[in-house]
Amino acid sequence: MSDTIKFGTDGWRGVIAEDYTFANVRRCAQGFSSYLKAIEKSGQWVVVGYDKRFQSENFALAVAEVLAGNGFKVHLTNSATPTPVISFSIAHKKAAGGVNITASHNPPTDNGFKVRDQHGGAIAPEGLEIIESLIPASAEEVLRTPAPEALEAGTIVRFDPAEDYINHLGSLIDLEPIRNAGLKIVVDAMWGNGAGWFTRLLAGGKTQVIEIHNERNPIYPEMKRPEPIPPNIDVGLQKTVQENADVLIVTDGDADRLGFGDEHGAFINQLQTYALLAYYLLEVRKERGAIVKTLSTTSMLEKLGKLYNVPIYETGVGFKYVAPKMIETNAMIGGEESGGYAFRGNVPERDGILAGLFILDMMVQLNCKPSELLALLFSKIGPHYYDRIDTKFTGDRASRENLILQANPETIGGLKFTGLNTMDGFKFNLEDGGWLLIRFSGTEPIIRVYTETTHKDSVQAILQDGLKIAGIK
After folding, report:
1. 191 is in which domain, residue-wise?
2. I want to staple 294 with a disulfide (CB 3.0 to 4.6 A). Which of 163, 336, 400, 448 is the partner?
3. Is residue 167 part of a domain?
4. Alpha helices, DSSP H only, in 80-196?
5. How far apart are CA 77 and CA 359, in angstroms?
């Protein structure tokens, strides 16, 4: 076997039974084991967890066998566990790192192999490159200790991470005001790892939690994939209106991302949610500190940074860039366009559960419905509008990138072009502080065109001009 395995922003994802096989998962586990040895963590504990996708628990056990075969001791979760809980467990148990078997919000055909450092955060790009380079070409080169033997010897230990994580949440947020607020909350767990968590955390008071899609079903009915954006959350938005609920909270397949809907069944997009979370920390909790953002997320953060005199750091797309910058700057919050947000005092990793609790606390503390929270935010920094188009392309990527680089338009969507940022893709800055971003997928022939602007009627025109710049139209 000589299949090349390439890591993306978080690790490796593949199609189950095509390239995502037990043999290839074991090869990845061997590469990670060799990496941990190379950074002088031999013999230490490693946390392994998994999601509710097809065969995830068995893929996780296969990873644990390889780690044990390489002389590591393994804490293996006893059930499907949210990614943020796995990440917290790594830091809490002072483990050398972790492996999470999940494909997050990918289609049901996929599964994945996420790696984490000792902080519970994403491993920086240079570390991922080393892991890649240490993946053996053949499954015959993999070291393994069979699970029954490792379990008996205590080199694989099953554990329940829930209680420690819940106790940790109690140090970050007082849940009593939310429990006693009398809210009606619809929670869409997207058939994934977030099922049961909000019900458990908020039980015992006047607040009512109504869960949907809270069983294991790895084909994800009623959605294209467990990604917390329309149209995947349309059923949840409809349920919110039917139940006359105050809010919709959505967690993706592994519960590290947050989706958010208002009391009228309208989606509050992920850029607006990030700005609301930053505003909550700054205004309600009176926290101060750096804000870390990927270049594909909202410019509302720069405006909040000026308003509250806090620094803003922009990174490339992915938590492999966000997490190290958060640690470096002791950031108050870090996040990205895809709905992942991380917070100081927690691990430098996306946490859809904590983000959802913060949104609920913001509603309670300010006595506002979600639509009113958005109106309050816009009253401070002005309204902002966002949209995105993903489209397939044919031909050579390099020549298309060169075409984009040479575009130099005077205006985009009727707004003056003021400068180009090529940190990660092609970000065309606009006169109103908005932007157009063109990025290529790292795994498939897709161009992503995004925009954020203060001009609602310019959104589609900017996107169409973006497609023209990319040579799609």
Report:
1. 173-381
2. 336
3. no
4. 83-92, 125-134, 147-153, 162-172, 176-179
5. 28
